[in-house]
Amino acid sequence: MHDSDELFDTLFRENRCAVLHYFRNLGCALEECEDLTQETFFRVYRSINSLDQVKAQRPWIFTVAVNVWRNRLREGSAKKRAALLSSLEEVGGDRQEVVSVAEQVGSSSPPAPLDFALAEERKEQLRDALTRLPVRMRRTVRFRVDQDLKYQEIAELMNVSIDTVKTQLFQARRRLKEELGSYFERIEI
Amino acid sequence: MTEPEDFKEELRTVVKEEFRADQAHPSAEDLVAFAQRELSEDRTSDLEEHLSLCRDCTVQVLALRKTLEEGEQPEVPGVRNSTEQALAGVKRRAAIPEDSAEQLTGIQTPDRSAGKGFLSLAKVAAVLVTAVGLFWIGADLLQRPDLVVDLEPIASLTTRNGTAGSEETARVPEGRDLGLRIYRRGIHLPEVLEVIFQDSQGREVLRRPVENREPALGLILLEIEAEALPADAWEIFLVPEGKREDQALGSYAMIVESKD
What we know:
The complex is a heterodimer.
Chain A: H1 3-25, H2 30-47, H3 57-92, H4 95-104, H5 113-132, H6 135-146, H7 151-158, H8 162-180
Helix pairs in contact in A: 1-2, 1-3, 2-3, 3-4, 5-8, 6-8, 7-8
Chain B: H1 6-20, H2 28-35, H3 41-53, H4 55-69, H5 83-95, E1 104-111, E2 125-132, E3 152-157, E4 169-172, E5 176-184, E6 193-198, E7 204-209, E8 212-214, E9 219-225, E10 233-240, E11 250-258
Parallel strand pairs in B: 2-5, 4-11
Antiparallel strand pairs in B: 1-3, 1-5, 2-9, 6-7, 6-10, 8-9, 10-11
Helix pairs in contact in B: 2-4, 3-4
């Protein structure tokens, strides 16, 4: 058996469970976890000769796993786009009509000019108020409001304590209320 | 005054706009290093900024960190294959030539025209070799390995309904058998499988059970007389036994043209 074969066998045996767990932690069904894990190690196998022995091997395997996952996300997006186009084609018929239907998806009647101007101003104020927050406080707000993360998850990502996250959000809420109170009835973070 | 929920909605809109200006995702290496807290301070800050705008990357980092910090992982309950079976499967898959691991690849079979005269496309025997990225543990051996050996790709065909999302035309040289090899990962094929061919009008012209397969290689082998197939276009559906094409596990569209 070649050295690279032996190395691969060892890497596989030592890391297969961890890679399965990674895809499991991403929310994949068990069968998909196995497929993605196989794909990961297939790529590892093909590149085993380029592996820098000095580098840590587990991070390298996870780098491959991340790329496999990203491909899967891209494939999912492409399928969604194709499905949307396909369903629009069934509805619409010719291409021109499809485009116009696609443009209309999700749109309702256009807002009145005054409402539009007010909405734009409100958005601008929000953008400015966020910019004036300290950098890490702003990120904490984004994690909490945009991504709906738990305090614990934010703390892990930002390498701080849960109490620090809570404090940051409390202060952000206070600042944003002061600045945006006339634009939003409630500032919920 | 606006509705109470507007603040969150508005903030999400603002974040989306900011994200458009910052589309470049960090490398996989950086995500792993971030999860391991091994990046420099500056790079950590850059990545933290990106994560606060990009949910996809955030989810990956959280999953990585959870996995890497769990330490020794126990076996995942319910997996189909043991570690040794899975290891063997990776190696067998790696033994398939790389250029045949396309989503769908036309394969030129050995030239039979010499001494026999040219065969029209309608008369050639078509061989469908389906290689799926799964493997079954067990028994069957590939009964006709000669059908796989010595086949060279003549064209890459991509699936219309598969992941590649586009459609191409392959030209088939006259006097050659046509072989097709499909590599399909991510679908779970039952033991009993049929392949349906439809013509360009969407009519079912042929339905064949898959009888030969090589579980470990993930190969399914099917021989089909080309007389039974429409000459211009096929759509192939892999279906569980007795199922319709709209219950397909995977489908492929292709246009096949004779060489001028």
